[in-house]
Amino acid sequence: MPVAVRVRAIVCVVLIAVFLAGCNAMSCSQRPSETRIAEKPVEESQTNINDLLRKDRDLETCKTVVHQLNSPATSGRMNVAELSDEERTILEKEFAFTADEMREITGKDWTPLDANYLFQCLLLHDGLRTLGLTMSDEPAARMERLRDGFAWAMRQVWLSGQDGRPLPAVFVLKRGYGGDPERAAVAMAVFHQLGFEPCLIGREQAEGIRMWAVGVAVDSDILLFDPHRGKPISGPDGKIATLKQVRANPELVKDLEIREKIEPAVFVKESKVYLAPSLSALSLRAKALEEMLTLQPPVRLATSASQTRKRYAQLGESAIFWNPKNETGTLVRSLAHFLPTDEGGFDRTPRGSCQYDIYRNRLAPRALMPPIFAEDSIAGEPGRLLRTAFTGRFVALFDLPNHPRDLLLRGQLDEATQGLVENLRQINVNQERVNQEARLEADAQEWVQKMRSASARLERAQIRPGEVDVAEAKAQVDNLFKNSSKVNLYLEKAVAHPFGTHVTFQLALCKHEQAWRQAKQFGNSAATTEAWETAAGWWRNFLNNYDNVTFLPKGIVEHARNLLAEAAAGAGKSKP
Questions:
Q1: Which of 20, 128, 137, 480 is the most exposed place for a label (fewest CB within 10 A)?
Q2: Chain centroid offset of residue 52 CA
């Protein structure tokens, strides 16, 4: 499958329909093919599942896996245990789960939500395994995993303002930015995938729990990470600070006084340890599948509420499960209540206005769409196709499998770079064509007016076929689509700047990740210096061209500056 996201100058019914079929991965997903899920003995079925996931780990493959797990040959002999009395009591009394949520956790049949959760875990697994981490239980290896895994998460998700209910970790990663709660969610998911049991450190306030750190239980301590600053909290010895150290010396988090408008000593003293495992991780289906999978390093899916609390009790902490009743934005419920019902989620809002669709709609800067493409200018199917042609490439860039952002997150950096470079090349080609057109906007407006008239005529013909010839009206619409080169080019002109901005940022991030891995694997060398200098050059390119752009999400420029400083420092340090 080609990885390039081509910025095409074609808007026709057939091609847009094909694009939409691929673009709306959730609402238009195909049923798993019968040839891939033929019933086999359980050993063969498990082998087949592992083979499938070695070849591809996109959402469609995860749905195929779930379908196969539910086949009689597999499900009848899968070792899905019953919840222990202790575990069930905790879930029923301390998580405030609804009856539907408990059915999702305790059911024996795999669900569409399982497929989405598996996809999230595999996306993280892919990205983290390309960091060259040592997976042993040696203290130095564990600290390396914690530092490098957290740093990777913070590079992928820049700090921005919180816009509404926090997204699930996987969608924060895809989008690439988030507020403190969303960066904390990504860090929690990363630490879980790396084999740790993370927690949140927070203080109860009138408006709810204010979380200010992510903690990880390691040996006899809880190590602290600050998702706001994107760095581990520094201890008195230069190592990662522990909760004990911060309680003994609140000045270690003195920046909280600025952020929280309260003395650190008071804030820290009143803070507690909160546990927030994903609802899907609490299902014993997750444990059964985790034990079945043979990918290396092992994929982490499951969490035991009782065992996690015991682990923190060993550290002298009375950890609290954070999942208030009816609060759908908690880390526990986040994925389940974000997804629509046809994906196994609990969001029953009609498609088009559900949380998932709102997320996808916001991936594109719709405010920059030319007014002539607005719904009040050109309605109906032609208008929808034009608007989709504008927004669709942003959706493809950030949300579709085997496209640049997906490839970047999975560590397939050469392929991601190839796609992003092709994006920029196509933008330049289209810009050359734009420069040759003196009446482009006028021609586009004329086309829209003709299409509006032709569409209205076709609609009348379909309602009152005796008054207007349907075939003739349809032919008029089709002919306009066939002769839409000017309006297509006008659309490319409108999309070039915002799309090029995002493509350039992702390309700079790609080069940064390549340099980081080069330094990790080979240390100081001429090649490492060159890789860091290339990354720094792309960050300068982004900042020089887009520093004052107003349509970008808050925080992106500051993130680019921080990564430029990191790349420049890496280039200076790595010179042999």
A1: 137
A2: 22
State whether 229 and 326 are in the same domain: yes
Domain total for the chain? Answer: 3
Same domain, 513 and 548: yes
Query: Is residue 227 reached through a cis peptide bond, with omega within 30 degrees of 0 on the bond before it?
Result: no
Q: Are residues 111 and 217 in the same domain?
A: yes
Q: Of 333, 230, 208, nearest to 281 (Cα)?
A: 333
- Give the CA dihedral 312, 317, 318, 319, nearest 10 degrees: -50
One domain, residues 64 and 99:
no
Banded pLDDT at 267 (limits 50, 70, 90) = confident
Q: Which domain holds residue 295?
A: 85-342
Sign of CA dihedral 142, 147, 153, 159: positive
State both tokens at 407. 């490839």
Counting beta carbons within 10 angstroms of the beta carbon of residue 576, is it exposed (0 to 12), middle (13 to 18) or buried (19 or more)? exposed
Q: Taking the CB of residue 122, how many other CB atoms lie within 10 A of it?
A: 25
Over residues 224-265, the pLDDT tens digits come to 999 999 999 999 888 999 999 999 999 999 887 767 777 888
**What are the Cα distances from residue 352, in Å, to 336, 389, 510?**
18, 17, 32
CB-hemisphere CA count at 13 Å for 478?
A: 7
Nearest to 388 by CA among 3, 1, 10: 10
CA angle 118, 120, 125 (to 5 degrees): 90
- Predicted model pTM: 0.90
Name the 3-class secondary structure at 377: coil
Q: How many CB atoms lie within 10 A of CB 572?
A: 12
Please give the C-alpha separations between residue 277 and each of 225, 303, 304, 305, 475, in angstroms, as whole numbers. Answer: 17, 7, 9, 8, 57
DSSP one-letter code for 302 = -
Are 305 and 91 in contact by the 8 Å Cβ rule? The answer is: yes
- Per residue in 175-222, pLDDT (tens digit) is 999 999 999 999 999 999 999 999 999 998 877 888 999 999 999 999
Q: Please write the tens of the pLDDT for every residue from 283-300.
A: 999 999 999 999 999 999
Q: Which of 325, 342, 359 is the last residue of a domain?
A: 342
Question: How many residues are there in the chain?
Answer: 576
d(CA 358, CA 259): 29
Nearest to 8 by CA among 426, 510, 550: 426
198 with 237, same domain?
A: yes
Q: Tell me the pLDDT tens digit for each residue of 210-222.
A: 899 999 999 999 9
Paired tokens of 179: 């507020």
